[in-house]
Amino acid sequence: MKLNCHDYHGIERLERTFIQGGVNMLGIVFTEFVEMVEERFSDDVLDDVLDTPDLSTSGAYTSVGYYEHTDMIKMVVTLSKTVNVPIDDLISAFGEHLFGKLVARYPVLVEDQNNVLDFLETIDSVVHKEVLKLYPQAELPKFSTERLSPDQLQMTYRSKRPFSQLALGLIKGCAQHFKQQVEVSYSSSDTDDYYSTTFVIMLSYDG
Ligand code: HEM
Q: Which of 8, 111, 148, 168 has a CA between 20 and 30 Å from the CA of residue 186?
């Protein structure tokens, strides 16, 4: 998979969200993040992450709870400093990991699908709609899509949370799930009210 990163989302951009205040986020995202840190790094790294100052809980997350999304950002910042990996790379890697976990939890949502672009087109109108039925308090991002060609999908992310890199990772995880190669390019155009990123996802047959 080849990624063309036209934009760097640094810590300053992420920290803007602190000013806007927390938006509650479903616990699954936190418990999966904690598990990924434990699996990919170590117990010591996880201890550092859970010791991040000013978390809304003392690091005790349950999958059905709701927590401030700023906790996730604070923990990713700690992780980045601890393991010396850029924040964007960590959030995107987490998205890839998370996709597999979400599919394992809700297999029915991918059951009849066999094409990554067709599936991505259903995130807003089917997948996240079903998620909202299960968890009415979930604050999900909005996606609008345009099929530019049979092999090319434009997908625009809009959210109060600065998690476009999570979306990028989820897109990559999705392509892996369907065993398809994609090239993804993206550019962001945030406003004062929303974070917005437009992705162009192209099927690639390079092998
Ligand atoms: C079977 C597939 C999927 C399921 C079951 C699923 C479900 C969920 C759930 C439960 C959340 C947390 C909601 C909350 O924070 O309260 C979430 C958030 C999110 N989802 Fe999905 N999702 C799926 C696929 C995708 C894909 C493929 C993308 C990317 C295009 C995506 C993009 C996001 C993003 C970026 C968030 C974070 C919230 C935000 O940015 O505002 N999801 N999703």
A: 111
127 Cβ closer than 6 Å to some ligand 1 atom: yes
SS3 155: strand
Residue 122, CA distances (Å) to 58, 85, 118, 146, 189 in order: 36, 32, 7, 12, 23
What is the rounded average pLDDT of the residues 143-153? 98
Q: How far is the CA of 185 from the centre of ligand 1 (A)?
A: 19
Which residues face 199 on adjacent strands? 155, 186
State pTM to two decimals: 0.89
Would the pLDDT of 147 be above 70? Answer: yes
| Average pLDDT of the chain, as a whole number | 88
Q: Which domains does the chain have, with CATH numbers?
A: 2-203 (3.90.1520.10)
- Protein residue whose Cα sits closest to atom 22 of ligand 1: 128
Helix H, strand E, coil C: the string for 26-62 is EHHHHHHHHHHHHHHCCHHHHHHHHCCCCCCCCCCCC
DSSP 122: T
161 in ligand 1 pocket by Cβ < 6 Å?
yes
The alpha carbons of the chain give a radius of gyration, in whole angstroms, of 17
Q: How many angstroms does the Cα of residue 71 sit away from the middle of ligand 1?
A: 17
